[in-house]
Design goal:
Helix content: over 70%
Strand content: under 5%
Shape: elongated
Structural class: mainly alpha
Number of strands: 0
Order of helices and strands: HHH
Number of domains: 2
Length: 90
């Protein structure tokens, strides 16, 4: 019975997500936000949401964002150094 309720909740989430995605031009942030809210609602319905779980997810997301920012900052620095050296020679 619980599996059926969760399945129907997932279908409802998809049914709500598609119009939002197409209304706003199909951008990923809106769909991601709807998915996150839907996942939290499903976890609340299944009584499996705990603060420790939210804390762990927040820490992992922060770590991934820091890694991505470091890679982008390094690539930008690398590009600026090479463009600066190229203009220095001519």
């Amino acid at each position: 019975m619980i599996a059926l309720v969760m399945f129907l909740a997932c279908l409802l989430m998809l049914a709500l997500d598609f119009p939002v995605a197409f209304t706003f031009g199909g951008y990923a942030p809106e769909s991601a936000a709807m998915g996150a809210v839907g996942a939290i609602i499903l976890a609340l319905m299944g009584r499996k949401l705990r603060f420790s779980m939210l804390h762990q997810v927040a820490m992992e997301i922060t770590q991934i964002n820091a890694i991505m920012f470091t890679i982008l900052a390094g690539a930008t620095f690398y590009s600026l150094i090479h463009s600066g050296l190229a203009s220095w020679r001519h």
